[in-house]
Amino acid sequence: MKKLIALAAGSIVALSAAQAAPTVWADNGHAYEFISGPVDYATASATAAASTYMGSTGHIVTITSAEELDFVNNTIVGSAIRFWLGMSDTETEGTFRWIEGPEAGLEVDSIFEAWAPGEPNDFSIGEDFAIGWWNGSGQWNDIRGTSSYAYVVEYSNISQAVPVPGAAIFMASGFGLAAFRKLRRSK
Q1: Which residue ranges make up each domain of the chain?
Q2: Could you tell me the pTM of the whole model?
Q3: pLDDT digits (tens, 9 = 90+) for 129-169
């Protein structure tokens, strides 16, 4: 099986190709992983919460700036695919709060929002969750949690994630060669 090597806090970590490392955004030190789904919100949230990367537990993505919105839409998702956002207005209708990650409990509009025109509107009663890439615009829409979409797992508090497949293998083989030469000389 093909392996990838990543340098994590001074340790070399091997990952199988099926577990390719999430992408780290240098601006906030968080890692992001796109999951094509499609699944309902509860499944996406539970699966994200059961995921870990470099010691950080995952959560459904929370987008708190225009720069992060651009990064997630264009680098992580990469095309107009609708995906779950970690927010809901189940506590108070019309007041969306982040329910995932370190922003949990904070009102979405007090940090950053990117609603499509006329959204959120609870058009189909019970639209208590939100998705990104509404109508291919990269903006948000409220939707029922029983709908099925892709999702992005965000891993907060990631500070070092430097994939170095070629360099790590080269360095490890160099140490092995040096040890072999020393062993041969001592015979």
Answers
A1: 1-21+161-177, 22-157
A2: 0.74
A3: 999 999 888 999 999 999 999 999 999 987 544 444 443 44
Closest to 103 in 3D by CA, of 119, 85, 117: 85
Residue 115: pLDDT over 70 = yes
> So what's the pLDDT on residue 105?
97
3-state secondary structure of 9: coil
3-state secondary structure of 1: coil
> Which of the residue ranges 8-17, 53-62, 117-126 would you say has the lowest mean pLDDT?
8-17
Phi-psi region at 159: left, alpha or beta (left = phi > 0; alpha = psi -120 to 50): alpha
128, 89 Cβ separation under 8 angstroms: yes
DSSP-derived secondary structure for 118-147: T-S--SSS---EEEEEETTTTEEEEE-TTS
Return phi, psi of residue 39, to 5°: -140, 165
Decide: 56 and 48 in contact? Cβ < 8 Å: no
Tell me, which fold does domain 22-157 have in CATH? Mannose-Binding Protein A; Chain A (3.10.100)
φ, ψ for residue 55, nearest 5 deg: 85, 0
